[in-house]
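Thread: Newbie trying to understand structure tokens

Hi all, I'm a second-year student working on a class project, and my supervisor (Dr. K.) asked me to get a predicted structure for one chain before our next meeting. I've only ever worked with sequences, so writing a 3D structure as a token string is new to me. If someone could post the tokens and maybe explain what I'm looking at, I'd be very grateful. Here's the chain:
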Amino acid sequence: MLKRRSSDSLTRLALVLATLISLVVSGLASSAVAVSPEYQVKAVFLFNFAQFVEWPPQSFENAAAPFVIGVLGTDPFGAALEGAVRGETVEGRTFVIERYRSVTEIRHCQILFISRSEAAHMEDIRAVLAGHSILTVSDIEDSSQRGVMIRFIAESNRIRLRINADAAKAAGLSISSKLLRPAELVTS
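---
Reply by user tm_fold:
Sure, no problem. This is what the structure looks like when written as tokens:
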């Protein structure tokens, strides 16, 4: 009888431990995929930029190539970026999301979000991207003055845009007045 009780106690203890472990693991998993509302909004902005910017034809590998939105550095979007473009097209092109650890990994990309983790590498990124028709977007402080074309600014629970139209023009991109009008314009 004593052996049966200790066996039952061990079984219950194992069950309790397994339950606790699964709760902790599921809590960690859900917190890992949780994306702040700010980055959910920014993900939608990135999708919308595809509709308000014109790229030269040579920006795409071929006529059937997808529209690529890339994230350079630590990804703050999680699945929000995929969710923003799921099922969408622009000028008949489907969307693909790519993530890059280094700017040298970029092959074909139309919009590149430069994460805050890359702030120390801005000059190198700018040098590598020179001559490419890639719309650069970031929320790094003063990035628009450092050659990034669109900077997100979070103020009073709103996202504002600071646009460096000169940098976009130098890359062969044409930004619609519908996007420029509400934005603050800056130069490098």
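A couple of things are worth pointing out once you decode it. The chain has six helices and ten strands. The first strand starts at residue 53 and ends at 54. Feel free to ask follow-ups in this thread.
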